[in-house]
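Input:
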Amino acid sequence: MGKPEKLIVDGKRLDGRGPDELRPLKIEAGVLKRADGSAYVELGKNKVLAAVYGPRELHPRHLQQPDTAILRCRYNMAPFSVDERKRPGPDRRSVEISKVIREAFEPVVFTKLYPRSGIDVFIEVLQADAGTRTAGINAAAVALADAGVPMRDLVSSVAVGKVDDMIVLDLTKDEDNYGTTDMPIAMLPRKKVITLLQMDGHFTPEEFERAIELAMKGCEQIYEAQKQALKAKYSTKPEEE
Amino acid sequence: MKMYELVSTVKRDYIVDLARQGKRTDARALDQYREVSVETGLIENAQGSALVKIGNTQVLAGVKIQRGEPFPDTPSSGVLMVNAELRPIASPTFELGPPDENSIELARVVDRGIRESEAIDLDKLGITPDEEVWMVYIDLHALDYDGNLIDAASLAAVAALWNVKKPQVEGWTLDEFPVVKKPVAVTVAKIDGKLMVDPSLDEQNVMDARLTITTTEDDNICAMQKGGIGYLTVEEIKAAYELARIKAAELRKHLG
Amino acid sequence: MLYAQNREIVIPGQLIAEGSHSIYGGAFKEGNQIYSSVIGLMNVHGQDIRVVPLGGRYMPRRGDAVIGIAIDSHRSGWILDLNSPYVGNLFVSDLAGRKVDLDKEDISQYLSMGDVVIAEIRDVDERMRVLLDASGPSMGKIRGGKMVEISSAKVPRVIGKKGSMTTVLQSTSGCKIKVGQNGRIMVWGDDQRMVNAVVEALLMIEREAHTSGLTDRVKQFLEKMKSEGK
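Output:
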C-alpha cells in the first residue's frame, strides 16, 4: 500500500486507536521447557519469544569477570517474521538492538551476586509489526524474573512517535514508515527512570516532553500486564498454609 | 554445538536397563510417540506456517513465497529452499554462529523428504522461463529442544506447506498453491538392540544410532538418514521401516 | 510497616516493607524501603522478613549435601557438574578418604566421566570456587537407582520440617532416597512401580511446593500406588 493520505482521521488512527492507546497486549510466562526462564509476548501483530539461560558457567573462560556475571543479549528476527523474507543471521540492525536491550537491563540485574558467570537473554521475533524491540524487552523482563534472576525492578518498554503532527503511543509498521518520528523507550517502573532511549525523526523540545510523558504512561500499562503474567504463573491454590 | 550432552552413568544405566525390558523412562511403549500437536496459520506475515509440538520439543515452520531466479537446468520450475535455525533459545547446547552440521543435516533431511516425494508440483511455479519463477522458502525455527527435532521439523514443514492455500502475493495467478503430497518423517532410535520411535532428549543422548525414514501416503520411501555413532543391521533397518510406515500414517492425521 | 502479607507472592521490584527489619533471601534495601528482588514467597517472622525464591539456580553453600556428575578430570582429581553456575572440585584424597600417592596410583580407577557422586561442600570462596568432600559415610560414587532433577528452590519442601516429607516418601513407598541441595535426588527401590511413584511424588512436590496440605496429599498418593500394585 502506498502512503495513505491521512494517518489520523477524526482523532482516530488507521487501526481505530486513539493517540494514547496501546495495541492489544498478551504476555505469558514460562512457555519453554529447556530455558531457565521464558516469556511470550503479543503486542498487536508482533509475536516475540524471550528465553533466559543462567546464571551459568561462562565460556570461553577468558570472558569471565572475577566479581560479576556478564549479561549478554541476542535479538534475532526469524526469516518469516517480516514481509520480505529476511536472510538468517545477524545484521547490523540486530546487533545494535541487542546492545541497547542489554543496556536496558544492566542497571537492574544484580550481577555482582554471580561472579565468573554469564546470564544470557535470547529474543526471537516470530512475527514483526514495528515495536519488536519494545515487545522483546517486555518479554525479556518477564523471562528474567521467571528464571529467578534477582533484579531491582522489572523493565517496561514502549515506543512513541509523531504521525500527522500528533504524538502517538505504540506505532504500527505503517505509522513507523509514514510518520516522521519514532522513539522507543524503556523504563524502570518503580523509580520511573529511563534505561533505553532511541529516537529518529523530528521533535520540538515541547513535543519531546509530551512524547516522554506519553511513553511513561504507556510503560505503566505494560508493567501491569507483566505483573499479571508473573502472578498468573505462580498463583497459589485456594488453601493457604 | 553439542547434539550429545553428557549423560550421567546413573541415567544411562537406567535408560539401557529399561530398554532391555522393552520399556522407556516416561512409561511410553517402544512404538509410541509423545503427545503431538500441530497448529497452523499463526504467522500472518508468512504465506504458510505451522507450530508442531512433540512432547516438549517445539518447532515453528514458516513458508515464504517470493519471486526469484530459476536454476539453469530447470528454467520454468519453482525453487524449493529449506533452512533450519537451531538457536540458543531452544537449548543450552545450541550456540550462536553460522549453521553447524546439525542444523544443516536437519534442513537437508526435511528438504529431501519434500523434494524427493515431489510434494510440491514445482513445474507449476514458473513465471517467465529462464528469468523468473516462484521461490518457496521453508524456514524451520527450533523453539524448544527435547529430542527428535527431525520429526517435529518435517511435520511442521509439510503442515506449513498445506497451510498455504492461495498466497496473497503480487502476481500470483494460480488458483491454489500446488502442494500434492504429505511426506512424513519417522525417527527410530536403537538402544541396546531395541528400536523405539520418537527418541526423547535423554534417549537421544544414550542411543547407539537412529534411522529417519520419510514415507508418502502410498507407503513408499522417499528419504532415509542414519545418524549416530553406532550401527544398524539390515534386519533392524527393515524393522524400522515397518515402524515408520505405521507411525507415519498416524502422524499424517495431524495434517488434516 | 509492611506492604505485603505473609505468604503473598511478590515480584522483582515490589515494595514489601519499610523500616528497620532484618532481611533475608530475595530481598534488598534502598534507603528505608525494602523490596523483593525475585518472584518469591513473602515470609514475615517478627522483625525478620524473608523472600523465599520460587525459582533460580542452585548457589553452592558450605555444608550442603550435593549430588554431582563428573565432567572433567585432572591429575589429582575431578570437576563435578552441580547443576549450578558453579562446578565443584573433588580431589582424589577427598574421595578415597586418605592420602593418595599420585605416582603409584591411577586415579581413573575411582571415577569415570559421567559418574554420579554424593558429596558435601566443604568450602566456597568469594570467587565461588567450590571444594567438595566425598569421603564421609554414605557419600561417594553412586551405582544404580534413578536420578530426578527438580528446581533447587523446592528442595526444602522435599525435606520438610525436620525431615517430615522425606520420612513420608521413604516409609510409605519402601524406597530409599537421597536428596541433594542442588535439586538432584536419587531414588532406589526393589519395586520399579514404587520407584516411579516416588518420582511422580517428587515432581508433584516441585509443582505444588507453595501450597498447604502437601505432605498429606503425597502420603495419600503413595499409599494409593502401593495398594494398586498388590
